[in-house]
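# step 3/5: fold
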Amino acid sequence: MVKSKDLFKYTVIISIFFLAGLIIASIKNEKSNEFRRTEICLGTVVDVQVRDRNSERAQRAIAKVFKEIRRVEQIFSSRSREAEVWKINHSGKGEFTVNEEIWNVLSLSKQIWQISGGGFDPTLGVLMRLWGFDTQNPSLPLKDEIQKSLLKTGFDKVSLLEGNRISKTEEIEFDFGGIAKGYAVDRAIKILKEEGINSALVNAGGEIGSIGKGWIIGVAHPRHPGLYVRRIKLEDISVATSGDYQQYFEKDGVRYHHILNPVNGYPARGLESVTIINKSCAYADALATAVFVMGREKGLKLVEDFLDTEAFLIDNNGKEWSSSGFEKFVIK
């Protein structure tokens, strides 16, 4: 059985709600209206909500957001032949000059790779292609195939050089699926603020950034679609979730999902869902993947050591775990 993100019957991983009392207060006191637009970008559903009293300003801001998101997609896509990442992936090993944004995201990725002990690793492109999670027909590879693919992974085989240059000692292929959506959300939030928007929510397939007060999200139950285990309030902050229920297939009663362990090349085990709260959606996005791979104990320790970051985890027994400051975001 195969279950993956069908873009036309898409089940958003984190559903969005707006606190009714604050909607009323906002409309009544600030004469603001809601403007909303949804498009398919970044291989997922992107939803932008803006509350503003000025229709022209709101619509202009939303249009600029989607233009920016599509620009980011054209840089970081590993599928489009026109994307710079695709070109880097198909250039073999050696030294390359890259887009400044790619260099910056690689720098952030390497930081999280280091502090997570390799839990987050965007060099798994060859391995991801082997499993076929970017297709509608993923399948279980042979053990030998996984071992061969692992030889073409590893951030230790990538060096970041001055002048926006990088070097690859092997035919590494980048897959920024664990950080690109978060980065795009950060860019969107920046544009909205520059346009004078004071209340907005950007959701890129479950990676969410917020501006202003009153936004509430429900964290989905990983085994019961439509049910939510926590409601979280957001105010000028971001949240991201990684789960074994987002993209997966089952074979002989075993669930194989898309969050791969960089050490053995198989899906990471031990957790069903990880939700991370951080000011930066890119950080939250990458940390959610890192914690999922690291497991509950090491993952929570990492979060506790990370400034202004909280986490909510559900293990494979359905037990819930959270960081020390997570409850301040929870609506009882």
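# step 4/5: annotate
Residues 9 and 19 are 26 Å apart (CA to CA).
# step 5/5: archive (pending)
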